[in-house]
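S., here's the first fold you wanted:
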Amino acid sequence: MTAISILGAGRVGTGLARKLAAAGHRVTLGVRSPTGTPAHAASPHAASPYAASPHVALADHRTAARTAEVVINATPGHTALERLAGLRAELAGKILVDVSNATHDAEDGLPGDLCYPGGSLAEQLQAALPDTHVVKTLNTMLFTVMTAPESLATPPTAYLSGDERDAKRTVTGLLGDLGWQPGWIEDLGGITTARATEAMVLVVPHILRRDGFKPFAVSLAR
């Protein structure tokens, strides 16, 4: 069992929280203002109205980051750097799994231009958090596929980018708990490879405009 905190209580964060809690991990959902729960008093067994699971605790971001072994960034990518840089002390020595994409919205609200062209949010996070092991993954698919990869007719790919081998090994184990088979996980190498997978988001709005929010993943075929 791993102590996992997920920052962000949207569809991505709550979906990951439910699946990881069901796999037996101790999960805390980090929100900006825990409803009805004082930030300093979040119980590890408290029911979360966000995750709709009695096995998921609720806490503010700082408390959630401080009490976890692994922290998952499921906050909006375009504001994630500033938010997480403010948690440098709490994230020191931790694994930070970044599943977000940093983009400026197009006129229709779908992803537009990259916030970090020629680079990546993951690289920015690693530079801002030198004592944290950043691993990029799960950012090349519709959010539903993150926790149900078996739902696609074609095996999807979860790419991994990160500088620390043991951190990626830990994240690979968590991907397995989410339903990802070993053959579906592709380790691309160091954190600089995240710029490739983050750029893949540019194809996403074209798929969504044509097909709507149907499950898909940008995957590697062999």
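And the second, which I think is the more interesting of the pair:
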Amino acid sequence: MATVPKVLEFYSGIGGMRYSLVKAQVNAEVVEAFEINDTANDVYQHNFAHRPYQGNIQCLTAADLDKYGADAWLLSPPCQPYTRQGLQKDTGDARAFSFLQILELMPSLSRPPSMLFVENVVGFETSDTHAKLIEILEKTNFVTQEFILSPLQFGIPYSRPRYFCLAKRKPSSFVNELFNSQLIQSPRPLFEHFGTLVNEDSSLQEDRHKLLQSCQPIEKFLEFKNHRSDVDVESAALMTGLSNDTPGTLKEDSDHGVDSSDQYYQYYVHPSLIERWGSAMDVVYPDSKRCCCFTKSYYRYVKGTGSLLATVQPIKRDKTSLKEQCLRYFTPREVANLHSFPEDFEFPEHISLKQRYALLGNSLSIAVVAPLLQYLFTEP
């Protein structure tokens, strides 16, 4: 009988990595999860009946890690040191220290993992932290395959490209060894078990042309599917909880109330925000086949934090004002759907609306991570 692999889940958040293992049908045991965010741990515990270790990862020693005897490490470290919007301090950012500390412990482990999985933002692949990761993996006898993939490539109408590093310690190997030490921007290696590398440039150009055609429409991911066209926009907007005098920010008393009787209306965008930021908004429709990445600041700010949904679909979209289209925010459940979280995923009641958006913005796409993990755990 095959031994069930043991897994350590670092920076576990609300459980996206663990849900990905389940979706991938990987028969593995998560022996411990690590997360410093108390609110994220409330959500993780609510869904998995297990509370992650909440101490500082930087305090872990080689002996601490060896005692778990884990076969695989799954890591989704903070992305802020590498984001285009951030200061890009890379290894000089304090939020990168814990990940660097874990990497530096690997050569001194008596029982190093046989598999490693790292997820981060696009841009990580050119960072000093990435260079350190590859250096240590090579030093500890790992072979790697790296990917930049988006949910759009898996039929999900959600543009969220991310970097992934898959590593196996020799003598283990990947199903498609031809892709070793490469950075791949196509999901084909995950599904092809033959040894000819398709020309990436031409295939990607063809994929871009057909990508949106293959995606499901956004309406399949919506919680509120029956939109009203007779909504009084001014009245609905006043119920959003958005401050009229401070565009883009929430009022203090609107942090809670997800289950209120006005659940539908609280997501409408105030007209004053449309007047000020309309030209910068990414507006999508139920039949759209793409939307922008949702950040942790979604619902607190309207500019550059994610798409807004038009609940009234005009015949001529380019000739109808945004105010007339009754824009609203995607609900947390809808954002979770676009992240491919399962139907039984839920937030504890005490988690505020603002916290739900922030936690989802820091999470990952299960539709992308699941096939990557299935590929990683598959032996030739």
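Why I say that: Residues 193-206, 229-233, 235-262 have pLDDT under 50 and may be disordered. Strands lie at 6-10, 29-34, 72-75, 115-121, 142-149, 162-169, 183-184, 283-284, 308-310, 327-329.

Talk tomorrow,
H.
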